[in-house]
Amino acid sequence: MTPLVPQSILDALTDIDLPRRMPARLPRKSLSVDGMEIPVYEADAVVVGSGAAGLRAAVELKRRSVDVVVATQALFWGTSVCSGSDKQTLHTASTSASGDSFTELAKALGAGGAMDADTAYVEAVGSVEGVMALKYLGLPLPVDCYGGILRYKTDHDEAGRASSCGPRTSRLMVKVLADEASRLGVPFVNRCTGLKLIRRDGKQGAAAGMLAIKADARGDGNPFGLAVFRCPAIVLATGGPGELYRDSVYPVNCFGSLGMALDAGIELTNLTESQFGIGTRREEFPWNLSGTYVQAMPYIYSVDSSGKEWNFLADYYRTTAELASNVFRKGYQWPFHASRTLDFKSSLVDIAVYRESQAGRTVYMDFHRNPGRVPGDAPFSLDRLDPDVVSYLKNNDAFLSQPIERLRKMNPLAIELYKRYEVDLNAVPLPFNINNQHMNGGIAVDIWAQSSLPGCYAVGEAAGTHGVTRPGGAALNAGQVFGIRCAEHIRANAGKNGAALRDGVFAGAIADCVGEIRRNLKNPDALSMKDVRSEIQARMSDKAGFICRDEEIGVALREAAALNAALNERGIRIENPAQIAKAMLWKQMALISEAVLSALSLYVGNGGGSRGARLICSASGTKVPETRIGKLEEYRFLVEREADRKAQIKVRYRDGQFEAREEALRAMPDPGNFYFEKNWAPFLTGQIFRDQRQRTEA
Ligand SMILES: Cc1cc2nc3c(=O)[nH]c(=O)nc-3n(C[C@H](O)[C@H](O)[C@H](O)COP(=O)(O)OP(=O)(O)OC[C@H]3O[C@@H](n4cnc5c(N)ncnc54)[C@H](O)[C@@H]3O)c2cc1C
Predict the structure, then answer these.
(1) Which of 414, 434, 454 is the last residue of a domain?
(2) What is the total count of domains within the chain?
(3) How confident is the model at residue 550 (pLDDT cuts 50, 70, 90)?
(4) Above pLDDT 90, what percent of the chain?
(5) Do 170 and 35 share a domain, yes or no?
(6) Per residue in 469-485, pLDDT tens?
(7) Which of 130, 199, 300, 373 is 20 to 30 Å apart from 56, CA to CA?
(8) What is the DSSP letter of 643?
(9) Whether residue 267 is found in the same domain as residue 290
(10) 233-236: strand order across its sheet
């Protein structure tokens, strides 16, 4: 029998203190513009964002003697610090029981389609260094007595390459990386929101720096709190656009930088691809209900406005065992997946939960009751579950009678976590719904994480490195791998970014920004931030969420475009200088929303069907999810076309217009042909950094 884990160990893995202070960087000079003195931070590279990806990039840059500064909206905020699932997963190459190889891992990473093959290989090969350095820095990844990291199967992962330190894995990653950054003396500029990328020749040329709002820099000489970063290399590590959807499991105030990238003319990719799944609501405590939360097989039910309880899943599955086994499978099939709505598979649970929410009922998970009985069938029994479920529970000593006992046995940290937010799973059921959780697309990057704007890199969730699906944990892995890759590339190119940066370019960007702020400040005719926010979030959740209707996408796109036109004409109201950054970010969210809808519109307009976490419902669809009591005609959907797996949709914003186009995936040469002597010289001379196709402005 597995031993009980003492409370002190559970506490240490749940309450993760982060460093209170980090070394700060002060501006070395200022720029005089329009009677104002704007502080200027100078460095070889600025990393924007201090999540797991940004900190990795910063540490790797510093170790390579690059003068790097981290500018961040909030030092310890964002998804790495605040989010997780029951066991947050880090996905890596491994020696699974049956052996593994980088090519096999790369295949698994790109299995959902629309992922560049070279990116998948880079993430596979880099995962070893990615995870081992974290372990070396003190990440408490569990190992067996032989030193092997303990691993398990997760979403879209057949080989069991996932590992975890518990629900706080990414927070622990941030902790060990922040400690290392502090040891290395990486300087930080906190409370600093990047708003505009600056290019060498104004609207053209490579990256030159960034304009930001630094909340605490406001003063007499700088009434709007502006700050300038003058750096030939910029790493965007700003996470995902968490505020895009109303129904979202991201922490609040996650905006990211996709809008800033669009505004700078940078190309984005795969914006059609996001993850959605069950989670506790943002209003309470946003958290994914994956892994053991559902593998414990709690009773899932809804309550209507009169207080009546509904065992609604019994309308969907044919037997009690089928119902319970599919609740269990959501543990490692967590994200909604179009194909799993068929044949009574696990994504039928998501549709059922969604329909209950649409009907105005609140859906709960109760760990004190076993799954409800399907009419005409016997009640729940451990002995009548599907064989994969029985063997999993038995293998983990969790073949126990009540869900709470099974959860406690398999993952006591899952219970501890909610306790911290005053929810006692021993006593109360958990309300939950379907939420947006991750943007698989983002800034298009090459194999060194460089975007279409030379000198500007993107890592972590800001980068569009994933395909349609991604194995659970691949997001954290990608952030680590590309954090290393961009540092290598920036170091190799140090000093090669052309002529000195001119003051005039920065002064011009400041003057434009000041003009915009002045037009919006207390402007009664401008749109209110609150209205902009609710319009964007409602449209994205209702028309571009995990359920999309083909006839609604075009209308939603036109509405999103109309909002941007109104914002350009009337502006967004800034009530006081403290709101400047937020207002600008909401204006950028409007751009992101139109960009996503432009991509979706092109995809569906070209005949694209349901894939990954989106069901494209259509009267001309050929598949219909079936339930115990009949077909769900309203969810008749279009199926994915094989050809779409081989391309990505790229989106750019140029001269006030969105351009969306399809591009074939990048291939990967056979690594079996990479011979040592032949490839040694390219490594020694740095040619490996130049072999990539040159990225120039189209
Ligand atoms: C509930 C939930 C569960 C998840 N579970 C898993 C999992 O099990 N495994 C997995 O691999 N992934 C998981 N993910 C996804 C994963 O957590 C994220 O992709 C990852 O943490 C992103 O890291 P990041 O460093 O890119 O961004 P973040 O951690 O979000 O950090 C972004 C940083 O950028 C700063 N910032 C943002 N905008 C700006 C700006 N304009 N200017 C300056 N600074 C800015 C923020 O303050 C923050 O410091 C989960 C996500 C959620 C929401």
Answers:
(1) 434
(2) 3
(3) very high
(4) 87
(5) yes
(6) 999 899 999 999 999 99
(7) 199
(8) G
(9) no
(10) 188-189, 68-71, 45-48, 233-236, 456-458
Structural domain contains residue 554: yes
Q: 444 and 429, same structural domain?
A: no
Give me the pLDDT at residue 698, please: 30
pTM of the model as a whole = 0.96
Task: Using CB atoms within 10 Å of the CB of residue 184, give its burial: 0 to 12 exposed, 13 to 18 middle, 19+ buried.
Answer: middle
Tokens 């389609």 found at: 113
Tokens of 205: 């040329």
One-letter amino acid at 209 equals: G
Establish if 562 belongs to a structural domain: yes
Residues 6 or more apart from 620 whose CB is under 8 A from it?
638
103 and 219 assigned to the same domain: yes
Tokens of 250: 């991201």
- Record the tokens describing residue 98, joined without a space: 């049956």
Mutate to test the pocket of ligand 1, among 80, 189, 257 (most ligand atoms within 8 A of CB): 80
Which pLDDT tens digit goes with each residue over 299-309? 999 999 999 99
| Alpha-carbon span 75 to 77, nearest angstrom | 6
Nearest CA to ligand 1 atom 4: 84
Q: By CB neighbour count within 10 A (0-12 exposed, 13-18 middle, 19+ buried), where does 123 fall?
A: buried
Residue 205: which H helix or E strand, with range?
strand 204-214
Distance (Å, whole) CA 206 – CA 204: 7
State pLDDT tens for residues 217-253: 999 999 999 999 999 999 999 999 999 999 999 999 9
pLDDT over 90 at 497, yes or no: no
Identify the residue whose C-alpha is closest to ligand 1 atom 10. Answer: 473
Banded pLDDT at 695 (limits 50, 70, 90): very low
Residue with tokens 């797996």: 645
Residues in contact with ligand 1 by the CB-under-6-Å rule are: 48-54, 71-74, 77-80, 83-85, 88-89, 170, 193-194, 237-239, 249-250, 254-257, 287-288, 437-438, 460-462, 472-476, 479
CA-based nearest residue to 53, from 476, 582, 513: 476
Q: Which residues contact 35 (CB under 8 A, 6 or more apart)?
A: none
Q: For residue 546, is it within any domain?
A: yes
Domain limits at 316? 283-434
- Same-domain check for residues 262 and 296: no
pLDDT class for 164, splitting at 50, 70, 90? very high
| Close Cβ partners of 380 (under 8 Å, ≥ 6 residues apart) | 320, 324, 370, 371, 372, 373
Phi/psi at 306 (5° precision): -90, 0
Ligand 1 centre to CA of 256 (Å) is 9
Residue 245 lies in a domain: yes
The residue count of the chain comes to 698
Determine the Cα–Cα distance for residues 254 and 196; give it in Å rounded to an integer: 17
Domain with 526 in it: what CATH number?
1.20.58.100
pLDDT value of position 693: 43
Q: For 434, phi and psi rounded to 5 degrees?
A: -100, 130
